[in-house]
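Q: What would this chain look like folded?
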Amino acid sequence: MGIPDMKPEKPSRGMTSLIERASARYGLSASSEPRARKRLDVPLIPEPDVVAVEAVSQAPVEPALPEVQPQAVPVPAPIKATPRLAQAAGTAEINLQRLADLGFIVPGHPPTALSEEFRIVKRPLLLNAFGGRSTPSVDRGRAILVCSAHPNEGKTFCSINLAMSLVNERNVEVVLVDADVAKPEILSTLGVTGAAGLLDAITQNVDPESLIIPTTIPGLSVLPAGHQSPNDTELLSSTEAFTLVEALLAKNPARIVIFDCAPALAASPASALAHHIGQILLVVRADRTSENDLSEAVKLLAGQAPIQLLLNGMTFPGSSQKYGTYYGYGG
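A: My prediction, written as structure tokens:
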């Protein structure tokens, strides 16, 4: 599955884009140059640099047998969700019109310029997730972390739109995880209610499937952030967190798990969770993210999974061409 060949708009003489400078300085090779976008730009795709992370398991402690009455020790039952953690039965209804009014992609609706953008954004991610005719998949490539350098750069907007675009794929299931545990926004943005989630599954050894909330959008379900903890970074870097990611992926070989995580330079969970993830999508705000911020964010996340850059809010002054006009909806 290839990536479309794209011809960039020529920037004005003497101007060099943020992504070009970042690519040259930090070794993030690109398969194509950015071009004009109404909302965001196509991500630059570096050469995969995967570091496999091995699970660290602890051998269970065998209980001592009573000396006075030797007998076989019963195998303890697996830990299940307590009543406090149990989610309400049923499917969460998502108001599609409200979603459209907020500017998000709506599955099943006619294509828009934004949905065309994310059709391009998701292609290299899908290639890493499932592999291609001559391209192997990335280790745990079906687990994608989405973050930014700082708040208000569009990471949650991009996480939700990526999920909405992916569920349009045939035979693909998407679990959208609210991994910004300090300031979760996925559920409130989608209009879904839930309490127990990611952190509860880690701290109480609960099957995460029991906490996942299905939605009325076919193929899309969400996992809440869960109850907050002062040790959220330590929990997300733990062996239990790695086991949770593995369990989510093992449930369905056609499942993609998207983790909407805290900004890399504003909180530490992103760099901790990145050790368990197969791909990273770093959202760069064209009018806010500085070159130094991009450098620091890449340093925190680099070496753990392939990093792709998504340039959000990009426009080229003086260009009247808008992406998507081929289908008649870009004007």
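Confidence is low (pLDDT under 50) at residues 1-15, 29-84.
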